[in-house]
Structure formats: structure tokens, C-alpha cells
Amino acid sequence: MNPLRHLPAPLLIALAIASFAGPPARADDLIKNVSMTRFMLVFSDLEKILAKAISGHDQTAIDGLLSPDFELRPGEHPGEPTTRSNWLAAAASGHAGDMEQLSVHELGDVAVASFVRSVPASGDTAELSRSYIVDVWKKQGNDWQLVTRYQSALPAADAPTEDIAPTGKG
Question: Is the dihedral of CA 139, 140, 141, 144 positive or negative?
Fold first, then answer.
């Protein structure tokens, strides 16, 4: 005899729905997701503050955010790092750009932030130059400093093509 046949229909439906739901969320999983979101906000803000400090020539803010031994490792010439002073000189004349596809991996006192940055190409606001950037941040006391940036140009987006009428020949 089936012990469930005497239960009211709404209760049977609720039990059936609960049986299809996965296991309950663990507290560790919830904390991990919250931490990831928090780190994404923190490093998004740090990237924006650094860009603003560079464009505004705010040396105090730059020194707080950029490690004294910072270097840029360009994807085109990874064996020829750009020094902190050379990178700052080049970055000061450029546009900060828009950041998208941010991901942050926190590893204790080190965090790795990766994102795509789009900036107007050669002053042209219609065409964008895009780079994939991986920033390595190190915790110094209560603050974070950018230690190394890896940057590679992304290929230009494909230009739209005209629809070509099929010829019927194959």
C-alpha cells in the first residue's frame, strides 16, 4: 500500500517540486558569490580611480595605486617590458576607455583582474581600439597596488558585409 496516496494534492505537488530542486545552497557557496561581486566592484573602482589619477596627473594618487616596480608586459613584445615611467608618460596622453567583461580572482594578498578595454582609435569616436588586459594587484597593508599589467591588442571587429544573393550554383 502506498503511504503517499492519503496526502492532500497540494502537499504531493510541493514534495514533487522539492524533489526536482537541487540540493540546498551551502553557506560557503553563498559567501564565495558575494565575495566575487564585492571584488569586482572594488577592482572596477580601483581601475577607474587609477585612470583618473593618470589623466589628471595626480602623482599622490598614482603612487598609492601603482607599485614602484610596476611594469607593462605587452602581448606583442612580452620580453620587452615597459617601465613604470614610460607607461605613465604614454598613458597620460591617452583616453582611459571603457571597461567590460571584468573578472577578478582574489588569491589572498594578490588579485588578478582581467577585462577588455575599448578606447577611441586615433581620436576617431566611431572606431574603437580594443585590448585584453590582465592586471596583477598586490595588497600593501590595507591598500591594493597594481604591480604588473599584461596587455594585448584584440583584433578589430569584423566589418559588416553586404548580403550576397545566392547564385544557385554550388
Answer: negative
Cβ atoms of 97 and 106 closer than 8 Å: no
Domains and CATH numbers, the chain: 27-153 (3.10.450.50)
pTM above 0.70, yes or no: no
Q: How far is CA 93 from the centre of its chain?
A: 23
Q: Which residues pair with 103 in a beta bridge?
A: 114
Task: Extract the C-alpha cell encoding 20.
Answer: 526536482
Q: Is 82 helix (H, G, I), strand (E, B) or coil?
A: strand
In angstroms, what CA-CA distances link 77 with 63, 69, 90, 147, 154? 26, 19, 16, 18, 15
What is the Cα gyration radius of the chain? 25
Q: Is the distance from CB of 70 to CB of 87 less than 8 angstroms?
A: yes
The residue to which cell 571603457 is assigned: 98
Burial 90-103 (b: 16+ CB within 10 A, else e): ebeeebebebeebe
Q: In what order do the strands lie in the sheet with 98-107?
A: 82-83, 66-74, 143-153, 124-140, 110-121, 98-107
For the chain, 170 residues long, the average pLDDT of each consecutive 10-residue run is 51 44 45 58 93 92 96 94 93 78 93 90 70 96 96 74 53
